[in-house]
Write a structure and sequence with these properties.
Layout: H1 10-13, H2 15-36, H3 52-56, H4 61-87, H5 97-122, H6 129-160, H7 165-194, H8 196-222, H9 231-234, H10 240-247, E1 250-251, E2 256-257, H11 266-269, E3 271-272, E4 275-276, E5 279-280, E6 286-287
Antiparallel strand pairs: 1-2, 3-4, 5-6
Helix pairs in contact: 2-4, 2-8, 4-5, 4-8, 5-6, 6-7, 7-8
Length: about 290
């Protein structure tokens, strides 16, 4: 193979890091520019502290648009890659339909949020104030919903895979960061129309905080390091809840079926088409250990 398995994660794991770096760097560039030029009062500025949108609507608009495009696309691709890795078994797979549904909803939310971010940078607050605020709302709601769906998904996955410390860390980190940012977003929505300076400060804090939320996905994607397709099932990394679920599955003919005779995903049900995952028998076929075999 062109790359060793331990290096397979390298390319896609850096997608959130790249997006976070561009976002963080651009924010600093915009903030430093505003401070270095003597804190100018922009035409669109309401208080004494400039909003990100005020600086982004100035001569730095091209930089702001490029930054938002890269960050929005990176966020969406990160969620898509994460979903693909779980589906292929290189990250802890979704064991139930509800987890797959919330994972898909998180991807959709990231697409909506990313689109809102790109559009708000194009329709700046100076020339299209109403559209700018609409797309700002779309961005906040999209990212917020994506974060909520992701956290719920991780919570259920964490219950399926008992004893997986890294998975628990990822779930807790996302929960803390997302909760703080969502609370700040609500406060920002209120102060935007009441206290301009406070709203501006909160907007900068939320923007910089979003960087850390993006970086949590680098931690997640690195867990696929050295993992082949289906490795998390092949290596017996099922938790207590997952083993119990897998133990209720029966094999009917060629496809895999669960309770009620409904065909299921081979990774989700713990089977590889013909027989369960686990240790190998004399024929080289993956089977569950005797203690967990149905």
């Amino acid at each position: 193979m062109f790359l060793a398995y331990e290096h397979y994660y390298w390319l896609y794991a850096w997608i959130p890091v790249f997006g976070a770096f561009i976002w963080f760097g651009t924010l600093w560039a915009m903030l430093i520019t505003w401070l270095a030029t003597g804190k100018p009062q922009y035409v669109t500025q309401q208080g004494s502290i400039a909003y990100i949108s005020d600086v982004g609507a100035s001569y730095l608009k091209p930089l702001f648009i490029v930054c938002c495009c890269i960050t929005g696309v990176s966020f969406f691709l990160t969620l898509v890659v994460e979903r693909w890795l779980r589906h292929s078994g290189r990250l802890h797979p979704n064991m139930r339909r509800r987890e797959r549904v919330f994972s898909t909803l998180a991807v959709i939310g990231s697409f909506i949020g990313g689109a809102g971010l790109i559009l708000l940078s194009i329709f700046d607050t100076g020339r299209h104030q109403s559209l700018h605020r609409i797309f700002l709302l779309v961005f906040i709601v999209g990212v917020g919903l994506s974060a909520i769906f992701t956290i719920v998904e991780y919570r259920w996955i964490n219950k399926d895979y008992d004893g997986q410390r890294k998975l628990r860390i990822a779930y807790i980190a996302k929960g803390i960061i997302a909760s703080v940012l969502i609370i700040l977003a609500v406060v920002f929505a209120i102060t935007l129309y009441t206290t301009a300076n406070v709203g501006a400060v909160i907007e900068w804090v939320i923007a910089f905080g979003y960087t850390f939320y993006l970086l949590t996905f680098f931690y997640d994607l690195r867990m696929s390091r050295g993992m082949r397709k289906g490795a998390y099932l092949d290596q017996g990394l099922l938790g207590r809840g997952s083993v119990e679920s897998a133990g209720t599955m029966r094999q009917v003919g060629g496809p895999t079926y669960g309770n009620g005779g409904v065909a299921g995903n081979s990774y989700a049900n713990g089977y590889d088409g013909q027989e369960p995952y686990g240790a190998q028998n004399a024929r080289g076929t993956n089977v569950l250990p005797p203690a967990t075999r149905y």
